[in-house]
Fold this sequence. Notes:
mainly alpha, Tyrosyl-Transfer RNA Synthetase, 3-stranded parallel beta sheet, two-stranded parallel sheet, 13 helices, binds ligand 1
Amino acid sequence: MDKKVIYSxxxxxxxxxxxxxxxAIRNWIGMQDEYDCFYAIANMHAxxxxxxxxxxxxxxxxxxxxxxxxxxxPEKCALYVQSQVPQHAELTWALNSIAYVGELSRMTQFKDKxxxxxxNINMGLxxxxxxxxxxxxxxxxxxxxxxxxxKQHVEIARDLAIRFNNRYGDTFTVPEPLILKxxxxxxxxxxxxxxxxxxxxxxxxxxxLTDDRDTVIRKFRRAVTDSGNEIVASDEKPGVxxxxxxxxxxxxxxxxxxxxxxAGKGYGDLKLAVGETVADxxxxxxxxxxxxLSDKKYLGExxxxxADRAYRAARRTLSKVYRKIGFYQGE
Length: 331
Ligand code: TYM
């Protein structure tokens, strides 16, 4: 029997944070053997906010290197750049005709980004979830491993798949979000009720995968904590809870175990322990990424092979879609 398909992607729109790693990439690694995996670099999504072209190109390659450095094996999964597979744009157009302006304008991310980029509320920003649905549906993905903030977008991909299937007959697998506990919502170190983001203006709010050891430890030392001094996870202690979550996600322990480990200790001890744990985990990834980036030829070959594999799968679905909607495809 064919393996089930996993699809996910990250935008090369800035330096990746430990939130991107814990909420997404880390969870992809263990799925490579059991599933047919497609992991993209979503550069078409990235241009919905202004990007410097040379930086976008550089970050695309850096993200490819990071995927491999984190443990994705290009022999097992398709690693590719979204814009190299033209069917993403083509399916987006077909899906646009069944996506409603009302539902797209209600998306949380659209509303947030419209506020943040008030001078640049473009069609792409609004259409972002339809492009994301096209990504997922092209590969007939069953599961989409993402952080909690992307749940709404995967749900719209489900809605569009169901709507299309109802109108034209069974065409798409209806995908499900796969949101693993622990790393699903890593919060800002400065405002721990808000998610950690690549684009936060405060550099101390986010820990980037490229941060060196001293920077990582310093950012955790400056992390905002809560009143009181007990190290327990609770709604009243979002700062401490976030630090415990990060600690446990990297250590592979439960929050209960971590609370017992830190019983009787102070916030300073927790911050130092989290900082050292994260720095220890990032250093081998950073070294591997650096090594990979020194071999651009290899990275180019990996991305070409990934795009070829993705293209074959995407073409199959798109041709089915075109047939169903009555697009002439030759005699
Ligand atoms: P992006 O680049 O914004 O985020 C990439 C992944 O990181 C997760 N994430 C987080 N997880 C936990 N805590 C955080 N603070 C945090 N910040 C980000 C996101 O949930 C995401 O899984 N639109 C997608 C990219 C995309 C995609 C797709 C994903 C394009 N096409 C198809 C899945 C399927 C995005 O959010 O990228």
